[in-house]
Amino acid sequence: MCLVDIVIFIKLLVYTSAMVVIVKYGEIALKGKNRIDFERKLIKNIKDCLKKNNIEFGQVKRLSGRILIETDQKCDCLNYVYGISSYSYASKVKTDVDEIKKEALKQYKTGTFRVSVKRVDKVLDKSPEIEKKVGAYIVQQKNAKVKLKDYDVCINVEIFKENSFVYSEKIKGLGGLPVGIEGKVCAVLEDDDSVEAAKLMMKRGCEVVLYKLKDVNYDELKKYEYGFKLREVDKVPNYVAAVVTSEKLETLKDRSFGKPVLRPLVAY
């Protein structure tokens, strides 16, 4: 088998994988009519993240307020993508109560548990009825104890018309907005706090360009460089909307850059 055939075979395996990553986002959902633009930007940034970290994946698609990534690989790099509130590794099963029961049982490990069902498509029984059936099955098979509050594990089931997704872990993301959705700003690098100021603007969806007044190491910013490319400039460019500085309340001073000045660290 030649190298090209191997690559195609691997990609085929990913496309038909029974595993997906479910990405949830918070602030994007509040953007009303512009929501689709924010979702598309987040998908673009996620794809860039996966490619840069050599993660094989199939489709990355929007689905009823969430993003699904078809992959069977670990995606720890998603921890550095702004706009993600949480993500979960989920198993994909046929939308059938018996299939859901079997997968939920696999997800249960030890201790007390609860089952949380969300019917995105209104198929099968109502959510509380499915929760009871799945929970009763786990109790029967494992002699486990149900606990609706302060439980050890929550088995989540998201039901769609054709397939359903089962998972028991939510990994917290950075939150905020996808980088690049709110335009460009110029971060002035003059001390270590400048890097933190730039990160805060990235979290608010701004792509940053870097104007170095002093030799500041900005390797930290490269962790979040998805969907855009960091670059240095030798002066404040005309195309940016604002300039970002690292001043705090006790170090405020007048700055003249010919652009509005943003000081995100003032509140810290």
Outline the fold blueprint.
Layout: H1 3-15, E1 19-24, H2 35-52, E2 60-62, E3 67-70, E4 86-94, H3 97-107, E5 113-119, H4 127-142, E6 153-159, E7 163-167, E8 171-172, E9 184-189, H5 192-203, E10 207-212, H6 219-222, E11 232-233, E12 242-244, E13 261-262
Parallel strand pairs: 5-6, 9-10, 9-12, 10-11, 12-13
Antiparallel strand pairs: 1-3, 1-4, 2-3, 4-7, 4-8, 6-7
Helix pairs in contact: 3-4
Give a quick precis of the structure.
The chain has helices at residues 3-15, 35-52, 97-107, 127-142, 192-203, 219-222, and strands at residues 19-24, 60-62, 67-70, 86-94, 113-119, 153-159, 163-167, 171-172, 184-189, 207-212, 232-233, 242-244, 261-262. The protein has 268 residues and is an alpha/beta fold. The protein is elongated and about 70 Å long.
- Quickly give the structural class: alpha/beta
Question: Stretches where pLDDT falls below 50 for ≥5 residues?
Answer: 4-15
The first-to-last residue Cα distance is 58 Å
Subunit organisation of the chains: single chain
- Strands, total number: 13
Radius of gyration: 23 Å
And the CATH topology of the largest domain? VC0802-like
Largest sheet: 8 strands, mixed
Number of helices: 6
Mean pLDDT level: 91
Beta-strand portion reads 15-25%
Number of domains: 2
CATH class call of the largest domain: Alpha Beta
Tell me, what's the shape? Answer: elongated
Helix-strand string: HEHEEEHEHEEEEHEHEEE
| Second CATH tier, the architecture of the largest domain | 2-Layer Sandwich
Percent of residues in helices comes to: 25-40%
